[in-house]
Amino acid sequence: MQFMIIRKADAATEALLPPAPGLIEDMEAYHQYLAEQGRVGLALGLRPSAHAVRLRMAPDGDSITDGPFAETKELVAGFTIIEAASKEAAIALLGSWPASDADATGEVVLELRETGCPGGCAEVAPGMPDNDDSAGRYVILLRADAASERDAIPPPARLDALDAFNAAELDAGVLLAGDGLKSSARGARARIAAGGISIHDGPFAEAKELIAGFWMIRAGSMQEAIAWARKLPYPHRIDADTVVEVEIREVLTMEELVGA
Questions:
Q1: Mean pLDDT of the chain
Q2: How far apart are CA 217 and CA 73, in angstroms?
């Protein structure tokens, strides 16, 4: 099974403050520990929401809202994909997250989510990194809704259309990674602070601030990323009345993180 560990944003990540002393080394050791067990996949950070946009596609037209966004604690600062035999095993790996990540603000919040689309969709596994630095990396985060929070299964034709679109964009070198996320009822949250770690099972109430899936693409600008997001055949967009909301974020490079 695959799970996503979502590192929630805080005042430090939104301000792009330098990492707490020792955090880079601790995170490298954590990912090395996962890699040695063959349990780590894609891992990346996101630039602050001041560099982001939200795209709302609705029957009455599209609207775009520029960041920054106020609800800092519900924003995503980064995520790591892990392999685990069960939710319990994933929670155990979650509990090994470096405690030094909480040093900057006194607390760090992590959300554990099982990956995959209800009804089944093809995971877009990240390929080998290339040397093409002419275009940036952007992540499209699909916002959850009532349907995704009850693991509603889209019509098979919609899932087939998504798989075909993803495959074509992968072959074109635009799509780099992507997957769905199952409902928060299958997940958990961890709060790490000086007093230790506390873990709570889902579901979580704030459905509109949850993530239901992601795509990472190569694009030359935010405008290109927005145009790509508009093309996606979102599987739950089954009629003209459906509203789709996504948040488009720039990937944070290690150079930016270390040099912040």
A1: 89
A2: 25
Q: Quick one: 197 exposed, middle or buried, by C-beta within 10 A (0-12, 13-18, 19+)?
A: middle
- CA distance readout (Å), 213 to 6, 149, 245: 12, 12, 11
Strands (DSSP E) found in 144-225: 175-180, 188-193, 196-201, 211-219
Could you give the CA distance from residue 215 to residue 115 in angstroms, rounded to a whole number?
13
Look at the alpha carbons of 41, 142, 114, 197 in this order and tell me if their dihedral is positive or negative. Answer: positive
End-to-end Cα distance, the chain = 35
Question: How many whole angstroms separate alpha carbon 223 and alpha carbon 245?
Answer: 16
| pLDDT band, very low/low/confident/very high, at 198 (cuts 50, 70, 90) | very high
User: What residues form DSSP beta bridges with 40?
Assistant: 82
Which of 17-21, 34-38, 123-127, 189-193 is predicted least confidently?
Answer: 123-127
Q: Which domains does the chain have, with CATH numbers?
A: 2-258 (3.30.70.1060)
Q: Measured between alpha carbons, how far is 231 from 78 in angstroms, rounded to an integer?
A: 24
